């Protein structure tokens, strides 16, 4: 069977690597270079933490996590363990985080709820937090220890290399212009370099997934959110304080973690490319709320003044970053769904499979999504996965 994967981000490349293990004739097409768009414009976190996950959600992450464990053992890729800390700014959210810690722990994740007076152990410096809210208002936090920081573009490139070694035809700089169907069945993919015959097309186009769905008349509840991000650097005089909270993170579970505020802004220690850099941190917004019909102009990449002006204040939450300044800024887009789960499986158009709507968890879930796509191609998802992530659940 001839399979064409559209999209060379982390989902497309992981899927290509997985399908390269089959007997199918697999082609991946990417309009730019591998992993350089939405995948690169992310925090680069492999997350164990989750707010109010269901057992299914934890199981899906565990499936991906097991694959990543093998990946980092077998490859030269680096993924530093820094953990994640969700911070509650209200008592109600603290209660949700406490329930989440219990659920995660019940399913084998090293997760604990931390009281307000324990937060300083993780490099959280509320005395310098430059924000309009009361710096002492944190009501607690959910901490997981195993979450890793990586270079997501490097991971996507590794997946692409694995795919090539398995015989997948990986084409970059190729833009899809149309999907050809006949009698409701996929027949070919038209690109700016020519036609590719296909029995199955897999939509792994990230934020461009809704547009590709439209070409074959598939309507799914996908919306965009904006993910502004900035890398900040603290002055040399403060670097010793930053070093003291970020050193030896592979063995120190109390090092400064990836910190996500209830108000959705976050601070991720390290450089923009995922490398360890004690004087640098990335500030962003983890906006994953679904708003029906919110399909944005993806070429707009400017930061808002409010985010740019507020980023140093958010960075000051981490000890040693109270005088940080912006060195780099960018915008990424997330594709989100109403229930926060990805949409994976064959649609009403025979041979048109979707792997989209990752809701900010593309890096975290990529290997598990790739497995599900392989299941869909092989004959369909089982009943549980159809109900939880299939396109016909809406």
From TrEMBL:
InterPro entries named among the record's database cross-references: FAD-dep_OxRdtase (IPR006076), FAD/NAD-bd_sf (IPR036188)
Low complexity bias locations: 244-256
Molecular-function GO terms, alphabetical: oxidoreductase activity
Protein's UniProt keywords contain Oxidoreductase: yes
Residue ranges of the region described as Disordered: 237-256
Pfam families tied to this protein: DAO
Protein name: FAD-dependent oxidoreductase
The species this protein was found in: Natrialba magadii (strain ATCC 43099 / DSM 3394 / CCM 3739 / CIP 104546 / IAM 13178 / JCM 8861 / NBRC 102185 / NCIMB 2190 / MS3) (Natronobacterium magadii)
Biological classification of the source: Archaea, Methanobacteriati, Methanobacteriota, Stenosarchaea group, Halobacteria
């Amino acid at each position: 069977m001839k399979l064409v994967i559209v999209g060379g981000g982390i989902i497309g490349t992981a899927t290509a690597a997985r399908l390269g293990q089959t007997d199918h004739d697999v082609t991946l097409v990417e309009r730019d270079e591998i992993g350089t768009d939405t995948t690169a414009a992310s925090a680069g976190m492999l997350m164990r933490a989750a707010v109010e996950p269901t057992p299914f959600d934890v199981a899906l992450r565990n499936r991906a996590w097991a694959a990543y464990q093998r990946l980092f053992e077998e490859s030269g890729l680096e993924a530093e363990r820094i953990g994640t800390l969700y911070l509650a700014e209200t008592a109600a959210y603290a209660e949700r985080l406490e329930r989440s810690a219990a659920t995660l722990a019940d399913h084998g994740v090293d997760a604990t709820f931390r009281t307000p007076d324990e937060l300083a152990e993780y490099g959280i410096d509320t005395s310098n937090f430059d924000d309009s809210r009361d710096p002492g208002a944190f009501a607690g936090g959910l901490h997981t220890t195993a979450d890793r920081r990586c270079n997501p573009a490097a991971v996507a490139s590794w997946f692409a290399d694995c795919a090539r070694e398995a015989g997948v035809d990986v084409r970059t700089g190729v833009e899809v212009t149309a999907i050809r169907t006949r009698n409701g069945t996929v027949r070919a993919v038209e690109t700016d370099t020519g036609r590719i015959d296909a029995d199955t097309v897999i939509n792994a186009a990230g934020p461009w997934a809704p547009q590709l769905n439209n070409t074959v008349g598939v309507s799914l509840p996908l919306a965009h959110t904006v993910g502004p991000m900035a890398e900040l650097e603290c002055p040399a005089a403060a670097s010793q304080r930053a070093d003291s909270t970020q050193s030896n993170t592979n063995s120190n579970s109390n090092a400064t973690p990836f910190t996500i505020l209830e108000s959705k802004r976050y601070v991720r220690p390290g450089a923009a490319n995922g490398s360890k850099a004690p004087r640098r941190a990335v500030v962003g917004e983890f906006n994953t709320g679904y708003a029906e019909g919110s399909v944005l102009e993806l070429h707009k990449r400017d930061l808002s003044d409010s985010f740019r002006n507020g980023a140093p204040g958010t960075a000051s939450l981490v000890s040693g970053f109270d005088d940080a300044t912006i060195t780099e800024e960018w915008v990424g887009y997330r594709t989100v769904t109403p229930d926060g789960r990805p949409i994976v499986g064959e649609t009403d158009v025979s041979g048109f499979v979707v792997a989209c709507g990752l809701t900010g968890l593309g890096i975290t879930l990529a290997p598990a999504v790739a497995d599900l796509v392989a299941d869909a191609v092989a004959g369909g998802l089982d009943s549980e996965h159809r109900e939880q992530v299939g396109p016909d659940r809406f």
